[in-house]
Amino acid sequence: MTAPEITLNDGRRAPMISLGTVGLRGQAGKLAILEAIRNGYRAIDSSTNYNNEGIVGLAVKESGLARTEFFITSKLPGSHHNYDRVFEILQEQLARMGLDYFDEYLIHWPNPDEGLYVEAWRALVDAQKLGLIRSIGVSNFEPDHLDAIIEATGVTPAVNQIESQPYFNNETVHQYNQKLGIVTEAWSPTGRTNNDVKSNPVLAEIGEKYDKSIAQIVLRWLIQRGVVPVIKSGNPNHQRDNLDVFDFELSDDDMEKIFALDKGEEGRLEDQNPNTYHEYV
Questions:
Q1: Residue 90 C-beta-side C-alpha neighbours within 13 Å
Q2: Where's the NADP-dependent oxidoreductase domain (predicted)?
Q3: Was 80 annotated as part of a binding site?
Q4: 180 class by beta-carbon count within 10 Å (0-12 exposed, 13-18 middle, 19+ buried)
Q5: Is 41 a catalytic residue?
Q6: By percentage, how much of the chain surpasses pLDDT 90?
Q7: Catalytic-labelled residue, pool 50, 105, 117, 176
Q8: Could you give all domains of the chain from N- to C-terminal order, each with its CATH number?
Q9: Residue 138's pLDDT band (boundaries 50, 70, 90)?
């Protein structure tokens, strides 16, 4: 089973579900990613800060599939918001992964206190022209950040990967993305260990109605909004279940029940507000 695809604003196509790899490291991580590939995942999301780009690259190589079968994403760390340093780290990341290009490359955080994200975006625009990146985008950008880079370069990101989960749906940013023709991706869509999304009784009740797990209900809620989930799992059964979300549709009433779980700023997973958060490495 593989996920259907969505068309980005640059004309390229990307799977509607991506495998998150944070925490998947070493031999165990490589085997988990290989299992995910066997289970049908073709979009794989990594980052320098995950300390696993080499492992991701090995899994892609050892899968035996053609490079063109994959949609590989990595991200620019906050310490490299400088035009020349963007190219240095980008080339290093490609070398670690054994790739000639990234299908998607994102500025991980805007770091607005530093004010260099526009310069970083200019570098991504040029890296795309050089063929190092197929689709360029951002992560955790608010509307003001998006406006600034578009005004400065005339180039609109293909993707904005943001936090979007039941306790913090981030619908305002998602709608702004849609207004600009930007695809929204969602990191940690089913929460983390510091919240109880996976045991929420409202989500459990909806799951019983459709004979689906809570994770499947959340993923379907995102997909019906036009959001691409980036979901991490090293468990083969969960990997398969997370792809098995295209055979049902949530009712409008159930969609609203999930929207009603939103807690605003208190619902953020790590209290990482992009207007104030700074990624130092």
A1: 32
A2: 33-261
A3: no
A4: middle
A5: no
A6: 97
A7: 50
A8: 14-194+227-244 (3.20.20.100)
A9: very high
